[in-house]
Amino acid sequence: QVQLVESGGGLVQPGGSLRLSCTASGRITSFSGMGWYRQAPGKQRESVATLTSGGRTNYEESVKGRFTISSDNANNVVALQMNSLKPEDTAVYYCNAAVNRGGLTYSYWGQGTQVTVSS
């Protein structure tokens, strides 16, 4: 199995920054991609930023220009730098990893980390 551990959430004022980090461990053969998702109260989980193994990134429209996803492949870490945070960014943020194994792709989730943007 694969374990994902997130860190870096917290309370920040509007306009502030946070950096989320996710470390993967366990039966990791190769990743087809990793990403960050978020779920606000009463809303569905949505994709925030994704990164393919080929280095292609995709961002949710509202975070473009403010958030940046990056990876440290040697250490199986994916990070999300969040700048110019807004109250509407408040949510539980989840790390996701798509792991290739035996010709199949398995999806794993972290436990989530709370991000609250409030004055």
Question: Would you kindly provide a written description of the structure presented here, covering whatever features stand out?
Answer:
The protein has 119 residues and is an all-beta fold. Strands 2, 4, 5, 6, 9, 10 and 11 form a 7-stranded mixed beta sheet that branches. A 4-stranded antiparallel beta sheet has the order 1-3-8-7, with no helix packed on it. The N and C termini lie far apart (40 Å). 29% of the residues are buried. The mean pLDDT is 94.
Structural class estimated from helices and strands: mainly beta
The fraction of residues in strands falls at over 45%
Give helix and strand order, one letter per element, not per position: EEEEEEEEEEE
Low-pLDDT parts are none
User: How much is the radius of gyration in Å?
Assistant: 14 Å
Specify the number of helices. 0
- Can you give the mean pLDDT? 94
Determine the N-to-C terminus distance: 40 Å
The biggest beta sheet is recorded as:
7 strands, mixed
Shape descriptor reads elongated
Number of strands: 11
Helix content: under 10%
Summarize the structure.
With about 120 residues, this protein is an all-beta fold.
Please outline the helices and strands.
Layout: E1 2-7, E2 10-12, E3 18-26, E4 30-39, E5 46-52, E6 57-59, E7 67-72, E8 77-82, E9 91-101, E10 104-109, E11 113-117
Parallel strand pairs: 2-11
Antiparallel strand pairs: 1-3, 3-8, 4-5, 4-9, 5-6, 7-8, 9-10, 9-11
